[in-house]
Amino acid sequence: MAILKNPKQSSKVTAAILSLAMLCLPVNTLASQANSQLATATLSSQEIQTAERADGITQDTQSSTPANQLILDTPVIDEVGLLSTQQNQALSERLRQIHQQGKAQIAIVIVPSTDGEPIFDYAMQVADRWGLGNKDADNGLLIVVAVNDRKMQILTGYGLEGIIPDAIAKRIIREQMTPAFKDGRYADGLMQAVDAIDSRLQADPETLARMNAVGADAPEDVAFDLITLFIIALIIGKIVTGILGRVLGASLVAIGFVIVGMFAGLNVLLAILAASVLFLLLLVSGLSAANSLGTGGQYRGGGRSGRSSGGFGGSSGGFGGGGYRGGGGSFGGGGAGGSW
Prior knowledge:
57% of the residues lie in helices and 10% in strands. By secondary structure, it is an alpha/beta fold. The chain has a five-stranded mixed beta sheet with strand order 1-2-3-4-5, with helices on both faces. Helix 3 runs parallel beside helix 6 (186-202), helix 8 runs parallel beside helix 10 and helix 9 (246-263) runs antiparallel to helix 10 (268-284). This is TPM domain-containing protein.
């Protein structure tokens, strides 16, 4: 208190206190700025990680796993870490349920890239090696997603080509997978695709025909399917009319064309119109396939022995120990591909 009685000393103390206060202000300001910058940096790091996850690109998964090194030990093989643990488990559980019901064996493979190899070829190698599906039913289905390439492929086994024809596989990619993938909702897109596939696996033929008529394909898809089917039917028609006669043979082929066209997803009226043209062409055609066939007993349906064994050892089902091994199913290249 003696200090306060001396005016000179009192003023010196006051000046010292003020100086100390002035020094503290910048320190507090700097500390506040540092905390703010740290928070911003943390937020930016989180945003970058979120963006990388949504874009499917991570620093440690740039190189892809070769198709012959992938091991089928679970329904969902995620080489990218694109799905969360919960999403992976949900998809795996759904695919196991479908498999246990005996309807199909579906597997999903997510890789960073196919390293320049066409995704169809990559998927076929995986499908043949694993032998998805039962050997007798050929009811395997494979979905491959190459994230950095932004490409996807659905492959159907021989036994599923009538239930999920190429046009329907393309529709599933276009309507279920692509929109979700563009928004970074990969798990949603895959689950929606599985839902669409499962709904067709459970449907009867009449229901399938109605489902095919809903959500007609894009014009270019319809044109391609129609032309391909028409050419095949014309070739078969010439063979049948050469054996059964023009009228009966042309009639049976035209009816078969309509039925197959409906299962392939063609519009019913368009299929009937094309069948009418096919009937007339076969009726007026003077060509006979009987001579080219020789005896009828020598003609055999297109074999698939070349793939039935699953050329990479898939029939043994000896890959992995997760209880989801393939049963020797065969694939002929049915399905569709797409990108986003």
